[in-house]
Amino acid sequence: MALETAILEAAARWYVDLRCDDADNATREAHLRWLESAPGHRQAWERLIRLQERFDRIGPGMAEPTLKSARIKRREALKVLSLLLAAGGAGTLAWRNTALPSLIADEHTMTGESKSLSLEDGSQVRLNTATAVNIHFGPSLRELQLLNGEILVETARDSLARPFVVHTQEGSIRALGTRFIVRRLDARTQVCVLEQAVEVRSAILTPTVRVEAGQQMWFNQDRMGNVQAASPDADAWTRGMLVVNNWRLEDLILELQRYRPGHLGCQAQIAELRISGVFQLRDIDTILENLSSTLPVRIRRLSRYWTRVESV
């Protein structure tokens, strides 16, 4: 029997409540009453426990950070646990290989969240939606490791003259006193330089490429893309906006998917429709409704977490 999302979310809330320091007998008794009130409640709870047991077998370092996050960031942990429940048994390996490293990264954001950081040298880093980054400042290097997502970096002058380098699985970007964006999605890294320049080096390929202000390029483990002119609105997401100019509708939907939990798709028949505009990322559902009033499309929703843009 498929479990409703509301039941899975409720199980996640109980999981967090029972592990918080203020959990008391009244909380535990209320949890027992919830378990007995419907068959689906016990099924959801058993799924959660099975998943936690799997993480325990993976190793003590995998499950414990989730519990720590639950104590420190209660609302964030609820989102994480709800996703863990929805993943089910088959999703455990995928979480081990992708999401869990992100959750235990030095800094991360959930879907739809952004965050600004001030590093110890005075450099500023802005994390976009669903982003995870590790930070390491050593005696000879200032390093960030972008696991996934998107960051804007504004480097500060370092008293020790240590180079500032951003690493991804595909390679590294060395700042040359600069302000730049690094985006890693689908095993591909994209670099956009807003001020001064960076040097891009592939993890495998030989050449080092210099990218100047107003330019961008992408690279993966097999290929270095060409240096091209960057959009003047590449950093609009730091202001909560998305600026598009003659985009394919499918590309717009794929970009909006990054900011909205669940599935957001586009029917193939309308993928090539073109659109331009400025969109407020804080309300993706409003953007979708506006699409239906400006293009020959309709919005089909099967649940809170499944939406598709279709032809009328």
Automatic annotation (TrEMBL):
It holds the Pfam family FecR. Residues 108-199 form the FecR protein domain. InterPro entries: FecR, FecR_N, Ferrdict_sens_TM. Residues 9-48 form the FecR N-terminal domain. Signal peptide: none annotated. This is FecR domain-containing protein. The lineage of its organism: Bacteria, Pseudomonadati, Pseudomonadota, Gammaproteobacteria, Pseudomonadales.
